[in-house]
Design brief:
12-stranded antiparallel sheet, alpha+beta, globular, about 300 residues, 12 strands
């Protein structure tokens, strides 16, 4: 994002993992418009409970990151970070929005009051704000709905978000557009239409993404000491499916030749299967092994 203010808020969304009681905040399709191309969700409450979060430094790592925030925003940034429960983002054909779910609507109101911006057109009685840093770029927009901060890159996507959250617009709940509607995890990402994947395939460097995916679903979770990541893609043709599997098998073969212990650990935990035009990759790795990789990255010998 180009704006300093929005960048700070997105950093809070991605890093705002604080202390306190955990009440899982899973992906909820009823908060997302039915016309989206892709949707993702990070269950921050659930993330707090994971061994991996603790191994990565926990709250101390977050506090250290927030020390880089502008001095006038630092205190409020820390307050907001400790109240975040979950983050949802969606993208339509041209625009999208981010929801930052918190436990403290008062802190959200105080945050908006301190941000450089100006009031915009209210939506269904909810005040909205245009955020900008004066550099001539198009503004972004923000509003508070109950205990959720809504950030959007257009007035239309902000209004659409507020109406969906208020139960006044169609949502993904019960929609047959979701290729995998039942998956839950610490992180979930699902594509709904294939327009976005078509655009990605034109600029992607990864060979698999260039083959033409019709849908993609990813979820990542931790349970019983294991980190599990699932990725399921539906290809456009049998030929594309076979090419995708061949590429993945080739990558696994190359990894098997590596002398790096981390590469072998990853290889041992990966399975690739196909069903119809779908290809599914499942990676299961002991959290203890991931922790070693993190520690080696931060403290290489």
């Amino acid at each position: 994002m180009r704006h300093v203010t929005l960048t700070l808020l997105l950093a809070l969304a991605g890093l705002g993992i604080g202390r306190g009681s955990a009440f899982a905040t899973p992906f909820e399709p009823a908060t997302v418009p039915d016309s989206v191309q892709a949707v993702g969700h990070l269950d921050v409450d659930l993330l707090r409970k994971t061994q991996l979060f603790t191994a990565a430094g926990g709250q101390a790592a977050i506090d250290a990151a927030l020390d880089q925030a502008p001095p006038q925003m630092r205190s409020m940034a820390r307050t907001l970070a400790r109240t975040i429960r979950g983050v949802t983002f969606w993208r339509g054909s041209d625009h999208g929005a981010i929801y930052v779910e918190t436990r403290d609507s008062r802190a959200l109101g105080q945050l908006l009051a301190k941000l450089p911006g100006k009031p915009a057109q209210p939506v269904d009685g909810y005040p909205t704000y245009a955020l900008g840093d004066g550099n001539g770029d198009d503004p972004h927009y923000a509003a508070v709905f109950a205990d959720t901060l809504v950030l959007a890159d257009s007035e239309d996507s902000l209004a659409q978000s507020l109406r969906v959250l208020g139960g006044k617009a169609a949502t993904l709940a019960g929609s047959n557009k979701l290729p995998v509607s039942s998956r839950q995890g610490v992180f979930v990402f699902v594509t709904v239409g294939d327009d976005l994947l078509g655009a990605i395939s034109k600029v992607a460097h990864a060979k698999v993404l260039q083959l033409g995916l019709r849908s993609l679903a990813v979820d990542v979770g931790e349970a019983s000491g294991m980190l599990t990541a699932n990725a399921r893609g539906e290809m456009r043709s049998a030929d594309a499916l076979q090419k995708a599997k061949s590429i993945l098998d080739g990558l696994r073969a190359l990894a098997s030749l590596s002398d790096e212990p981390a590469a072998r650990t990853l290889l041992d935990g990966v399975t690739v299967t196909t069903n119809g035009l779908a290809i599914e990759i499942v990676c299961r790795i002991p959290v203890a092994e991931v922790t070693k990789m993190i520690q080696h990255h931060h403290h290489p010998k």
